[in-house]
Write a structure and sequence with these properties.
The complex is a heterodimer.
Chain A: H1 2-58, H2 65-79, H3 85-105, H4 110-114, H5 116-151, H6 155-161, H7 174-177, H8 182-187
Chain B: H1 4-53, H2 61-86, H3 91-107, E1 111-114, H4 121-126, E2 136-147, E3 150-166, E4 172-188, E5 196-201, H5 208-215, E6 223-225, H6 230-235, E7 236-240, H7 243-249, H8 252-264, E8 269-274, E9 277-283, H9 300-314, H10 316-319
Helix pairs in contact in B: 1-2, 1-3, 1-9, 3-9
Classes of the chains: A mainly alpha, B alpha+beta.
């Protein structure tokens, strides 16, 4: 009889651990997903600025016409929806790069740089970029917590049993990571 | 930003005459105080000698009592008149006006100085750095104005709370505890944001247990924000209402700038970002911007300290790059 009671207690404790472990994993996963949603929200904010930017810039920029149409196309694709998370991320990176290119090209158009409309837009864009980067960092922090739980003992046991998979971190693209070559910018 | 060499020139050419005049007055105060103390001691000595020589048995007790009363009255009167004579009523306010104010104006002519004003307790509480109840609040030496595009306010403040204990005999005892004493700085931040983010000194270190206790801070409505800069994390713990906005405010470059600022200034540093304002509390043991009666006022090192303390606060704007207005907030 005594052995049976002990067995019951041990089982009870194990079940309790399993419940707590499972709930923790779910909570961490939800936080990571919430963080991803905030990246999405910031990305949408940026998409909303693109038509404005293109409209303001195209009167001045003659040589960058193709880049501008490209950006407009990418935006249309991004806004249309039905993209997987990975595709979204890839498209986002492409848009970032293209917009970075435009901002560098602006240096060649002093009239544009002095345009009040453009200055305001540039402020908004900088703001969205910074918010986007903040959202990505928040996502990476949440995913790191979640991945740690998936890989560290004892929670990794529950992750294995309940099939929780680790998530990918946002990598800073190779282009962003490179230091800005100021000299090259001036020699252009 | 003014260099120390420029300040040395300003000290020698502009401030010197006023400093000399003030130093003469300071010497006078010290000398007269010394005379008062000496005379008081002499008087006390005299009284003791007279008292010891009094043959109490030959006279009745009453007259001895009256004699002592009169003697005490004379001594107290002498101390009061002596103190009045030694005192210089306008010395303190003149010091603020002729030493601190010119330094403030030298650092930046756009700044205003109000010796008796201070950052209010409502701003102090709005910062959400210290959540204790405040029972006593005081301060002085308010400086405010614009540094290029950024509006700043700072002053010395002291916030305290009290505890009362009652012992067995029913006597109550009140004890005052300092919440914060030092420089409190406010600036209009260069980004818009709605939530609060608080950066506190990391007293728990790092590791699993430290992280656990950092997380268990239930006195705050802000939640722990884990940031990615290891050097920053070594010295600070961050709590924020919104994980994304906390990172929007604390960009990687601002974290690095805060770390560098901390290195320059070893005192405890508390920072918060609330409703588009930046709050910084820097703890000081000493009283800031006060005259010293026993140091020569014309000595450069003394005035240099006032200059450096003001400069430190004003330079926060540059150190944290607050004039960088590349976002929508102008």
């Amino acid at each position: 009889m005594e052995g049976f009671t002990t067995l019951l207690i041990v089982l009870g404790v194990l079940v309790l651990f399993a419940i707590l472990g499972y709930n923790r994993l779910v909570r961490l996963r939800n936080m990571a997903e919430k963080a991803f949603a905030s990246i999405d929200a910031m990305a949408k904010k940026r998409y909303d600025l693109i038509p404005n930017l293109v409209a303001t810039v195209q009167q001045y920029m003659e040589h960058e016409r193709s880049t501008l149409t490209e950006i407009t196309e990418m935006r249309a694709k991004a806004v249309s929806g039905n993209l997987s998370d990975n595709e979204k991320v890839d498209l986002d990176n492409k848009i970032s790069r293209a917009m970075g290119g435009i901002m560098v090209a602006v240096e060649n158009y002093p009239d544009l740089k002095a345009n009040q409309n453009f200055i305001q837009l540039q402020g908004s864009l900088n703001e969205v970029e910074e918010q986007l980067s903040a959202a990505r960092r928040a996502y990476n922090a949440a995913v790191t917590d979640y991945n740690n739980a998936c890989q560290m003992f004892p929670s990794n046991v529950f992750a294995l049993v309940f099939n929780f998979k680790t998530k990918r971190l946002f990598e800073i693209s190779e282009q962003e990571r490179q230091n800005v070559d100021v000299k090259a910018l001036f020699n252009k | 930003m003014k260099s120390l060499d420029e300040f040395q020139k300003f000290f020698n050419q502009v401030m010197m005459p006023d400093l000399k005049a003030l130093d003469d007055r300071r010497k006078k105060i010290v000398n007269r105080s010394a005379i008062v103390i000496l005379l008081t001691l002499l008087l006390l000595l005299l009284a003791t000698v007279i008292y010891l020589n009094l043959d109490a048995s030959k006279q009745d007790n009453n007259s001895v009592f009256y004699f002592i009363l009169v003697l005490a009255a004379i001594i107290i009167g002498a101390i009061i008149t002596g103190n009045n004579w030694a005192r210089d009523k306008t010395f303190y306010s003149d010091f603020k006006q002729k030493v601190i104010e010119p330094i403030v104006k030298f650092v930046s002519p756009e700044l205003n100085y109000e010796p008796k004003n201070y950052v209010g307790s409502d701003s102090f509480q709005r910062s959400r750095i210290f959540l204790n109840r405040i029972d006593r609040y005081s301060g002085d030496d308010m400086v405010h104005g614009k540094v290029d595009k950024t509006q700043i306010w700072f002053s010395e403040v002291k916030a305290e709370y009290k505890t009362t204990t009652t012992d067995k005999k029913g006597r109550t005892k009140t004890t005052w505890h300092t919440i914060f004493k030092g420089l409190f700085f406010i600036a209009d931040f260069n980004k818009h944001f709605q939530t609060s983010t608080v950066v506190l000194p990391n007293r728990l270190g790092k590791g699993f247990l430290a992280d656990f206790f950092k997380k268990m801070n239930f006195s705050r409505r802000e939640k722990l924000v884990k940031l990615e800069d290891p050097d920053f994390n070594k010295h600070f713990v961050v709590y924020g209402e919104d994980q994304v906005e906390a990172r929007y405010v604390l960009s990687t470059s601002l974290m690095r700038r805060i770390s560098e600022f901390r290195e320059k200034h070893p005192n405890h540093l508390y920072i918060s970002f609330v409703n588009s304002f930046l709050y910084i509390a820097i703890a000081y043991r000493k009283n800031l911007f006060e005259p010293s009666y026993f140091k020569k006022m014309t000595r450069f090192s003394l005035v240099q300290e006032y200059f450096e303390d003001i400069q430190l606060a004003v330079n926060i704007v540059e150190d944290l790059n607050l004039n960088n207005r590349i976002w929508t907030k102008q």
